[in-house]
Amino acid sequence: MIKYKIDVLNTLKNKGYSGYRVKKDKLFSGSTLQKFRNNEIVAIENIDRLCYLLECQPGDILEYVPDEENNTE
What we know:
Elements: E1 2-4, H1 8-14, H2 19-24, H3 30-37, H4 44-54, H5 58-61, E2 62-64
Antiparallel strand pairs: 1-2
């Protein structure tokens, strides 16, 4: 499964993107912010924007962790 390595909202806040600023500047939709809160994976376009804002690569944000259900060995 793909999961976040970081607390997205807290990392945005530390980079100067408060919840107020994210909403005011319409950087992410309300549903995307809710997905970040719930540690749900978002669309690639949002990962792209997140990488731009945080000045990082997708691998700095996401990681693959094998889960029991998908283990075929």
